[in-house]
């Protein structure tokens, strides 16, 4: 798939608009339209779906999303140099691309949802984890979005999908495992990007799922922050930083206390989060 529309090849777009990737913006451009189409397909059939894309750059993934049939793409781009290139795509797909110039960290994403809505993005490496955490901790829950299909550094992707007992398991894995079904769709080698990053990347697909009502996510975050803050210590020691009777926490979760955080199932963290408010009175 060397060409998916009548627009110029991405290398020409980058050259004509002077879109040299900026390290300070976490930019690494994908130029292979086969690859961007593959990412779009991981998100599932897009007919009738609004897609929110963060950091489109020259618009390779944007074009793939539109070519795959997205009803509309809302592209959020901080780099003003990319706006003319994105305007060309908007002209080629009338009424289907809206470009918002601004910082992705400042957006109210729930306000952008309209009908079936998904987030698909080759996220800037420097803000990817922050964005995902924000989406996964949004209230109310279930999420306003049907799914998230996102590019991360492979190391971050492994943390997102990690399970108890795995080296990568930590606070992010607990959060993602609680509120979503997450999987790594495929890896992306360094050579696929311009400029090549120093690490392998991976596309992660997350589907939000319902969780029990009445358990504020902030309580789970407090428990996991304490438990993983000293992850090599036994939890009877690491949980002391919460300032509540640790034996009561352990009893609620059915723990002996000699376990380590990296080995605890998600349900154990949830059980401790449920009783935490009552132990602070």
Q: Overview of this structure, please?
A:
By secondary structure, the chain is α/β, with parallel strands linked by helices. It has two domains: 10-208, Vaccinia Virus protein VP39 (Rossmann fold); 217-280, Helicase, Ruva Protein, domain 3 (Orthogonal Bundle), CATH 1.10.8.100. 36% of the residues lie in helices and 17% in strands. It has helices at residues 10-17, 33-42, 60-67, 83-92, 109-112, 128-136, 154-161, 171-179, 217-229, 235-238, 246-253, 266-275, and strands at 29-30, 50-54, 72-77, 97-101, 117-122, 148-153, 180-188, 193-194, 201-208. Strands 4-3-2-5-6-9-7 form a seven-stranded mixed β-sheet, with helices on both faces. α2 crosses α3 and α9 (217-229) crosses α12. The termini are far apart.
């Amino acid at each position: 798939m060397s060409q998916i529309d009548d627009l110029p090849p991405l290398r020409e777009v980058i050259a004509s608009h002077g879109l040299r990737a900026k390290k300070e913006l976490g930019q690494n451009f994908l130029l292979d339209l086969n690859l961007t189409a593959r990412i779009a397909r991981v998100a599932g059939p897009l007919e009738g779906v609004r897609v929110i894309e963060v950091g489109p750059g020259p618009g390779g993934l944007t074009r793939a999303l539109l070519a795959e049939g997205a009803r509309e793409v809302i592209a959020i781009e901080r780099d003003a140099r990319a706006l003319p290139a994105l305007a060309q795509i908007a002209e080629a797909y009338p009424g289907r691309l809206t470009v918002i110039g601004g910082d992705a960290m400042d957006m109210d994403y729930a306000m952008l949802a309209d009908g079936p809505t998904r987030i698909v993005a080759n996220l800037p490496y420097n803000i990817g984890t922050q964005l995902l955490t924000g989406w996964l901790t949004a209230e109310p829950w279930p999420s306003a979005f049907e799914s998230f299909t996102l590019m991360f550094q492979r190391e971050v992707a492994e943390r997102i999908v990690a399970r108890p007992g795995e080296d990568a398991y930590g606070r992010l894995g607990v959060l993602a495992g609680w509120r979503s079904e997450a999987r790594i769709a495929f890896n992306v080698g360094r050579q696929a990007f311009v400029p090549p990053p120093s690490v392998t990347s991976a596309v992660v697909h997350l589907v939000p799922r319902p969780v029990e009502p009445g358990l504020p996510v902030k309580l789970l975050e407090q428990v996991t922050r304490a438990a993983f803050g000293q992850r090599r210590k036994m939890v009877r020691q690491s949980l002391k930083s919460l300032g509540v009777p640790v034996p009561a926490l352990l009893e609620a979760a059915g723990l002996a206390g000699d376990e380590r955080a990296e080995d605890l199932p998600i349900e154990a963290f949830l059980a401790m989060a449920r009783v935490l408010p009552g132990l602070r009175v």
